[in-house]
Write a structure and sequence with these properties.
The chain has one domain: Rossmann fold, CATH 3.40.50. Helices cover 39% and strands 25% of the residues. The strands form three sheets. Strands 1-3-6-7-2-8-11-9-10 form a nine-stranded mixed sheet, with helices on both faces. The chain has a two-stranded antiparallel ribbon with strand order 4-5. A hairpin with a 2-residue loop joins strand 6 and strand 7. The longest helix has 19 residues. It starts with 7 loop residues before the first strand and ends in a 6-residue tail after the last helix. 39% of the residues are buried.
Length: 295
């Protein structure tokens, strides 16, 4: 029966037509907040409406992911709990489900199984996760995005690499394992984010994830506002780098490495490091974290 998935609170009963489910998580998998910014942008641009959420009591430690209090009309005090929301959009006649959440603090296997149960409940045929990792890439170049799939059939059908990663993982890795075990095809998209910048949202990397997802699923997204934010971000970073001779020299070295030393491929009409090279960087980054956040 629709709506019977454990730990899910339904605000509206929906019956979408085999929607892909696009997931973005704040925390360890979210360098430069690129994945979560991309997820929120898609919700906004596609006018997605929330129809269900996970019970936060089951998956979040409220001493770590604290609820917040706010005033409504300057009078009523309302508690906002950590949100793990499912939203539905229709894009040129195609249904899409978006899921956004902080990385859970506990019960990861149950959390992942609940998302997969929802995917089956909604008759989804594909799960996609968005992620971003900090590494040695210059902010001045095209943001590299690597895509991978857990099984050979999905990788071949979508023109992606098959994941060969071994090492520490975040909720995206646990979710893909649960998806693979359940028979639901899944895809992981990761953007490479400059590690030398202050911790702040990176709209340029978010834009790269949105564009890669759009091309992968053949779902159009109007990216004008995000492009403007990325351009303003680049101007701000350029001023920051110009104020430090040491940082400017470091960026110059990263640019030279990106232009000359790494294997190159053509992507979106621009030259960027190859998927294999960036995948290797992603694996190195994840192994070095050992429990530390990615951004």
């Amino acid at each position: 029966m629709l709506g019977a998935v454990e730990h899910v609170i339904w605000s509206e009963r929906v019956v979408p037509d085999r929607p892909p489910i696009i997931c973005a998580f704040r925390g360890w998998n979210d360098g430069g907040e690129a994945a979560s910014v991309a997820g929120r942008y898609l919700v906004e641009r596609w006018s997605a409406r929330s129809f269900a959420s996970l019970d936060p009591e089951e998956f979040f430690d409220f001493q770590v992911s604290r609820p917040t209090v706010r005033l409504v009309n300057g009078v009523s005090r309302v508690i906002d709990w950590p949100q793990a929301d499912f939203s539905l959009a229709t894009v040129q006649g195609r249904d899409v489900v978006l899921f956004g959440s902080p990385e859970p603090n506990m019960r990861w296997r149950t959390f992942a199984r609940t998302i997969i149960d929802m995917a089956h409940e909604l008759r989804s045929g594909l799960l996609v996760t968005l992620g971003a990792f900090l590494t040695d890439v210059p902010h001045t170049r095209t943001v590299p995005v690597v895509g991978s799939a857990a099984d050979e059939e999905t990788a071949a059908r979508l023109g992606l690499a098959r994941s060969q990663y071994e090492g520490p993982t975040g909720i995206t890795g646990v979710l893909h394992d649960a998806s693979n075990r359940s028979g639901l095809p899944s895809v992981s998209l990761w953007a490479a984010v400059p590690h030398y910048l202050p911790a702040a949202p990176n709209p340029k990397a978010a834009l790269a994830l949105v564009e890669r997802m759009s091309a992968l699923l053949d779902l159009p997204v109007e990216t004008g506002p995000l492009r403007e934010a990325a351009s303003a971000w680049e101007d701000t970073v350029a001023r920051l780098v110009a104020e430090s001779e040491e940082l400017a020299e470091y960026v110059d070295r990263l640019e030279a490495a990106a232009d000359e030393n790494l294997p190159q491929v053509r992507m979106n009409e621009e030259t960027v490091p190859s998927g294999d090279a960036i995948a290797a960087e992603l694996e190195r980054f994840l192994r070095e974290q050992e429990g530390g956040p990615a951004g």
